Amino acid sequence: MKNQNLEQFANEFFGCLPTIFERTPFVKNIYPRESNLGAINIIENDNDYQMEMLVPGFTKEDVKIEIDDDLLIISAKVADVIEDKWNRKEFHKKSFVRSFKIPEDAKEEDIDAKVENGILHLKINKKEEETKKPKLIEIK
Q1: What are phi and psi of 38, to 5 degrees?
Q2: Which residues of 36-57 are buried (b: 16+ CB within 10 A; e: fewer)?
Q3: pLDDT of residue 29 exceeding 50
Q4: Does some domain include residue 67?
Q5: Rounded to the nearest 10 degrees, how much is the dihedral formed by the CA atoms of 101, 106, 110, 115?
Q6: How many CB atoms lie within 10 A of CB 138?
Q7: pLDDT value at 17 more than 50
Q8: Least confident of 5-9, 34-38, 75-79
Q9: Which of 14, 30, 72, 78 is deepest in the core (most CB within 10 A)?
Q10: What is the pLDDT of residue 6?
Q11: Residues 99/29/87/36 CA torsion (nearest 10 deg)
């Protein structure tokens, strides 16, 4: 009976070890479980919105950008290729999809995109503000 309790305790204790180590910053930096892939920076200027997204290892042919309704959808798909040549492999590309609601003042038809040094750069121009001119009403 004592051995069974000890075995149960050991299973519960050692079963939680990965969780404990994942929460330790030192270990998490060495063995990252989460990725910054698809992390994004956005800035709004007077005339445009500029976005930067991390896409390390992807080329412009790998990344797909589309507009569906009022959503800007950015995705990249990685083919399932098994590479046996590595003795140790700690990084790899992963498929992802991110979507963003397009602001009302953005020109959907005027978006520039480029991939450079593992960063996708997007520039979305804003619509020009319509200035309302005073209108003279004729009295009849």
Answers
A1: 85, 0
A2: ebbeeeeeeeeebbebebbbee
A3: no
A4: yes
A5: -50
A6: 4
A7: no
A8: 5-9
A9: 72
A10: 54
A11: 10
8/46 same-domain check:
no
- For CA atoms 26, 29, 30, 33, give the dihedral sign: positive
Q: Can you give the residue range of the structural domain that contains 104?
A: 35-83+90-128
Question: Is the confidence at residue 126, as pLDDT, over 60?
Answer: yes
pTM of the model: 0.63
d(CA 8, CA 14): 10
Indicate if 67 and 95 belong to the same structural domain. yes
Read off the amino acid at residue 7.
E
pLDDT in tens, 108-125: 888 999 999 999 999 999
Distance from C-alpha of 112 to C-alpha of 138, rounded to nearest angstrom: 46
